[in-house]
Amino acid sequence: MRAPFLLSALACFAFQSAFANDLIILKNGDRFSGTIVGLSSGLVQIQSPHSDQPLSIVSDELENLSFEEVETIEAPAHSHQVNLRNGNVIPGEVTGLDAQNLQFKTWFAGPLSIPRSQIKSVFYGVTPQRLLYQGPDNLEEWDPDEAWEFRDGSLTSNSQSSIAQNLDLPNRFILRFHLSWPNSPSIRIHFCTDAEEGKENHDGYSLYFSSRGATLQRALPPGTDEDKPQIQILGGSSKSTSDFKGRQTTVELRVDRITRRIMLYLDGELQGSFLDPNPAPAGKKVIFESQSSVRGQITLSEIKLHEWDAVTQRLRVEPRQDEESDTLTTDEGDRYSGQILERFESGENSSFKVKSPLLEQIVTIPEKCSAILYFAEGTLPKNSKSSYRLSLASGGEIDLSEIQLTKKSLTGKHPWLGKLTIDRQVVGKISRLNEEKKTVREEAPKADDPRALKSAQQLRLQIEAN
Amino acid sequence: MRSLFLFLTLPLALAANENLSRLTFLDQTVISGTVTHIDPEKGILKMTSPFLKGEAVLKMDELLDIQLNKDADVPESDHHALATVEHHYDNPFEDTIRGSLIGVDDQSVTLHTWYAGKLRLDRFMVKALDIYANSPSLYHGPNGLDGWVSSGRQLKNDWSFKKRALVSKTNNSIAREVEMSERSKFSFRAHWQDDAYFRATFLSTSGKSRHPSSGYSLQVNRTYLNLSRNGQNNLMHQSAPQLREQTNALFEFYIDRRPEGINAIYIDGKKFHEWDGVDDTLMKGKWILFSPQTSNKAIKISDIIVSLWDGRLPIITDAENPDATGLFEGMEGQRIDLANGDSLLGKIMGVNEGATKVKTSLGDVIIPVNRLRSFQLHESEETLKEPRMYKEDVRAWFTEGGFVTLKIARLNDKKIAGYSQVFGDAEFDLTAFSRIEFNIWDNDLNEERDGGGDGDW
Predict the structure, then answer these.
(1) Which of A83, A150, A361, B351 is a Cys-bridge partner for A139, taking CB atoms 3.0 to 4.6 Å apart?
(2) Average per-residue pLDDT for chain B
(3) Does B2 touch chain A if contact means CB atoms closer than 8 Å?
(4) Smallest Cβ distance to A295: which of B54, B153, B296?
(5) Which residue has the higher pLDDT, B419 or A454?
(6) What is the mean pLDDT of residues B432-446?
């Protein structure tokens, strides 16, 4: 009797709205688009526009499932993030800590009690980076004059020409895109400008990317009508095109107009953090200006614009000094190594007690000043296998097996945390885990904050001196 | 227990997946399985798949095509007759139906086919009838980017498929494997924007190199053509000044790999160069390859055909032979061209057991069908009729090249049946086809099927 009930429930759900752009890809390359309406009993149900009834796909054949990106999730934004030792990342709120477990509350999976030995770190001050733009989806939004070509989600230059879009850039943002070139790149990416096209950018930033490297420039408006616009070089990267495998790279610009600082990443590697000595430009546009007249020399894809919580980035790049003991890093960059004993609440405030081997007394650190908690490495439970990795729409990843998906929730078995019931709204993508992905990943971000250079020894000396 | 049963039975089901068909829809939904039933009136089909539970009922209104994956067992034949059907209305593509010629009368041309038995074609819809000693095609395309590889990292970054042609985006080459027999013909049409700068290679051992050093390479530099063999530029250095005035040209290679074989290259139907004394019997390469020689301007490659060749170079046509001009002018009867280049005027009275009876002014003669090359079916093109178009028409592509259009009536895992004004009702063995295109008169679907995008380049 279960199957008819399930199917009728699924059918009701399926016809609530038009087809979503959920996508299922099988191991053999088969693809199904439509609305994923359920996953249970070894089957995934999808309402396809090509069938009146949901299609039931054998889930063992899945490579991945991706759900149409939900623009706004009506859910609280967690500011904490647990990083498990198996590479899983779970956003939530720390509600307690004792000698054995961290108590962690999530809106999408309820409260979790996580053994400290399974936790690599806890980040504070994490807020979801709101996605403001993702594309390109068509040529018209960027280039009504069709000087470029749009195909398969990519924009390709046909000549020396600009494409532009007013993306309403906020004061702090992350602009990321994939850039490829067949021979020699020559492109200028203008941002924070209101110019119509690249060569008219007289107040804004530009990144010139060529075979010789990348140069970040500030275009300043002329002082008088007779003056010419000024160009100041803010910094750049000396990476040449031969340093990029496959003639492609992912460019990421992190722009903080409040502090007038711009960080440039190429393929996820920080090239530098550059300060604009001038007042920041106020423009809202992004312009891609191909400086090559050769057809097809520049191809852009996977353009994403996020709001940027600059604090988050800084905290994530704090390097860890000692894996034998716990470490608490404050948002001022101070670091306390030893043992994080517990979290306790006092009135509306909460704090951590930290015992340092260098200090006689136990230090109390307010939670609101905490940036990162690192826990000493311990014995991990025997790793049971997970078949899939769930990517959360709000950020984060959780490995699961025995997945069941219904209209409202997804249930699955986590190798360490056991059965989890997760709100359907947060489900972004489900991917089959291959052996490579199943290995524990290292977070080990690069240190680009000068304060990260303070060693534990320096801090200890500082504490002793105090 | 239900899911356990499912997982236990799955490996058995997947073991037989190699022959599955592959359905592709406009939104790029792709489903592998076996079509069990089709209802053209309701616009639905039923299929089973090892990846789906139960029988799926799918709507066909956005179905682009079904890729078939079945091995054909093509019987030997002493000749291959290829009937070219008049095109449908304003659609430029022409059906070609192949078989053995078994009958010709005033109303019909009858072919015996291994895949549909006897097909009686309406003579007034058959535009041309050619006879080949060998099967006329090994590859006929392009039909998309599938099966092609690029010398660059990503094929789609380097080449696109538009309007039945491969269009370069960069100077990386594009290649595919096509086995060429001892005697083969390789032809293609190249299009360029200002000047012709490209290289065409065949019998190469590599599909990933822009400048392969194995096989034959024709280098076209504006009007100067250079033909090399295994990297040695010793076969041809010759100018083709007419290319300066053109934006496209048809290149045809006739290759006989035996030491005593005669080889030739034709451009736009005219012999350009001939060579012999080359032993290519040990050449192992299977790649055909096209390389733009500049990334500034795109090239476009269409009408690629690799076919068997009987070793006889094309006969000189009347147009090329001033002495033959007006040879049969004003005389009554059908012109009949023979395989050896001879021509005669007469009337085909019938075909019986491989022999054609021809009535001529000098009396009746018997000509074996396999010694015919072609014969005139109509005294003027005005007598030709276009086949009617139907909403339910599908275009079924033969594995041997070419396609036939029919109003589909039935389809299962073994047969496809339908109707055409050309041959009436017929049932075809599905193994004869590599692909069946649906909704062929729908412009939106055709744009996607033909590669989409704006413009020709």
Answers:
(1) A150
(2) 85
(3) yes
(4) B296
(5) B419
(6) 91
Q: How many CB atoms lie within 10 A of CB A353?
A: 16
Chain A residue numbers with beta carbons less than 8 Å from the beta carbon of B22 are 30
The number of domains in chain B is 3
Say if residue B127 is in the same domain as residue B143. no
Q: Chain B residues with CB inside 8 Å of A146's CB? A: 454
Mean pLDDT confidence for B200-209: 90
Furthest CA-CA distance within chain A: 84
- Identify all chain B residues contacting A297, using CB atoms and an 8 Å cutoff: 295
What CATH number should be reported for the domain whose range is A1-68?
2.30.30.100
Q: Verify that B214 and B235 share a domain, yes or no.
A: yes
Phi, psi of A462 (to 5 degrees): -65, -45
pLDDT score of A244? 84
- CB neighbourhood size of A237 (10 A): 20
- The residue range of the domain holding B193 is 139-308
Which residues in chain A are classed under CATH 2.60.120.560? 131-308
**ipTM higher than 0.85?**
no
User: Are A433 and A445 in contact, with CB atoms under 8 Å apart?
Assistant: no
- Determine, yes or no, domain membership for B175: yes
Inter-chain residue contact B29 with A50, CB threshold 8 Å: yes
Q: List the alpha helices (DSSP H) in A125-264.
A: none
Q: For residues A321 and A334, is the Cβ–Cβ distance under 8 A?
A: no
Q: How many cross-chain Cβ pairs, A to B, lie less than 8 Å apart? A: 100
Class of domain A131-308: mainly beta
Q: How confident is the model at residue A113 (pLDDT cuts 50, 70, 90)?
A: very high
B337/B315 Cα distance (integer angstroms): 10
For residue B58, is it within any domain? yes
